[in-house]
Amino acid sequence: MLDPHRLRVFRAVVGSGSVQAAADNLGLTSSAVSQHLSALARETGLVLFQRQGRGIAATPAGLELATQTEEAMRQWDRLDSVVTDLRDGRSGRITVGYFASAGSAWMPALVKRLTFEQPDLTVDLVLTEVTSRNVTPDIDVVIDPPDGGGRAGYRRVHLASDPFVAVVPSDSELATRRSVALADLRGETWVSNDLTGSLGHRIVMSACAAAGFTPRFTVQAQEHHSAIQFVAAGVGISVMPRLAARALPPEVLRLRITDPTPVREISALVRETGRPNPAAERLLEMLLELNTHPSRRGRPGGG
Q1: Is residue 86 part of a domain?
Q2: Per residue in 258-275, pLDDT tens?
Q3: Nearest to residue 126, comparing CAs of 146, 152, 98?
Q4: What sequence ranges are listed for the domain HTH lysR-type (predicted)?
Q5: Most buried in the list 10, 74, 170, 174, measured by CB within 10 Å?
Q6: Which residues span the domain enclosing 289?
Q7: What is the CATH number of the domain that holds 203?
Q8: 183-217: string of b/e by CB count within 10 Å (b at 16+)?
Q9: For residues 143 and 200, is the Cβ–Cβ distance under 8 A?
Q10: Cα 109 from Cα 299, distance rounded (Å)
Q11: How confident is the model at residue 91 (pLDDT cuts 50, 70, 90)?
Q12: Which H helix or E strand runs over 222?
């Protein structure tokens, strides 16, 4: 079995590109670092580094080992944290997955409130819509696929319907309206705010097809913060979920979309472990309450 401490030293050398730099970062001597590297090479039977000028560089095998051990070391660090929590008397830990707009709109207030109620709780947040990590969140806030597919080991709880809106420059002709038919955006220059092929992108494209056109994207911003700034600069318009268009600069306005209105459904996937998880159930209560009574957001200890 590989020694986690040696792997940590090895990864520090790969990351810093220098035995001495890794030693300085880890608070070790360069001799101790070299000994760990030699021991790891014997354990694995691999040539991990090669001479490069006056220094060393990871071999292809070394780079691959560093890549493949990333998740294992993250899990080892998590186990270290669990042991520390137990030793220090902290009562629990919860892993919460989320997507970007839910993260910025909901998570800060929810985490503040949850940890106010449960001071010994450690909350790990994971942006599950983009992560390549093999994580199993206790609660994962997700966008429902149109086919309503589930996830093994989880129960689905619907949280909210999130309609898409048109984000337009405040000095445009469109800004004189309160709502706009989707077909009326046919001739506009569009700025994307999601990855092509993503669930949100497919929802928009399907609605546009139903309205009889295909939008013309000239900027692939691929996330809503940048897309909003492109709209503010007058580059074009963007169609994004209302949750993503909460905070807008004065140069931008938000319009309701009709005929049809693209909508995404948001749910919480709650992990079923066969044992009680009070923190997860409390967070689920808060998510449901937040979407039933939006005015209560962000009040630590509030009802």
Answers
A1: no
A2: 999 999 999 999 998 878
A3: 98
A4: 2-59
A5: 10
A6: 91-303
A7: 3.40.190.290
A8: ebbeebbbbbbbeeebbbbebbeebbeebeeebee
A9: yes
A10: 7
A11: low
A12: none
